[in-house]
Amino acid sequence: MLHLRIISPPDTTPAVERLLTGADAVTHVVVLPGSARDPVGDLVLCDVVREGASDLIARLRDLGIERDGSIMLERVDTALSAAATRAEKRVPGLGVDAVVWEEVEHTTAAESEISGAFLAFMIVATVIAGIGVLLDQPILIVGAMVVGPEFGPLAALCVGVVRRRPWLVRRAGTALLVGFAVGMLVTVATTWLLDALGLVNRSMLLDDRPLTSFIWQPDALSWVVGFLAGIAGMLSLTSAKSGTLVGVLISVTTVPAAANAAVALAYGVTNEAAGSALQLLVNVAAIVTAGVLTLLVQRLTGRRRGAVRGRAGR
User: Fold this and answer.
1) What pLDDT sits at residue 242?
2) Which of 244, 253, 256 shows the shortest CA–CA distance to 187?
3) What keywords are assigned to this protein (predicted)?
4) CATH number of the domain at 2-91, please?
């Protein structure tokens, strides 16, 4: 369930109140006339089940609330209310499967900004993976996968394509290009520094590395794993099961592939650098393809549920 905090212009509040009180998915409606100061208006509070949230928000935006007032969403972890239970029963489907498109778009847009924190996480993750490659240590590779922030822009790219948001596609694409480029450049410099200090050397890269060689040797399974990870990752972002995202990150070798390419470039091992770059492209393409398809299926399913609710309402 979601909690909505709406600031409505006084002349629009009656329409908002009618919309909320007439919606099966809405409960706990509270209207506080004249309470809002910035922007000036009436404060309207309500709770809405996830299955009906996107449709409700779209209708509020049609009333101009987004332009003249505001709409804020908050997740409700626990609701001890018979009214809430009745609202959940009135709306078909399960909340865990419902997609609140505005929430997803806002979240992914925020995670695709090129901030200092984003670049720092990308650098740290890539350097850790680079050291893991040289030491042939999977535990370092797993750590780099968890630290890496690249799934945010990848998800934003998928959302931008499905929602037809060119600005979001541009932002996500730029974040990916800049993030990987900065991470790889710093990893190259770090490799040279560690080599100068005698902590690593070229022979470590050329030695047999059975535990991490998969990073620069892509095959059909690389696509399969990336595709499945893209499905799981998108589901974790669009549903209430966000805790599964960590498992998704561990299964994707985007950052390790970029790190392996950077280390190989630092030592002039071009064939391994090329293999790592191909692994990176394969995983990115698989994740984006799976993410877009998952969102399209979810949108189609949501429209069918909306049609069912509409027929039931008549």
Assistant:
1) 53
2) 256
3) Membrane, Transmembrane, Transmembrane helix
4) 3.30.70.120
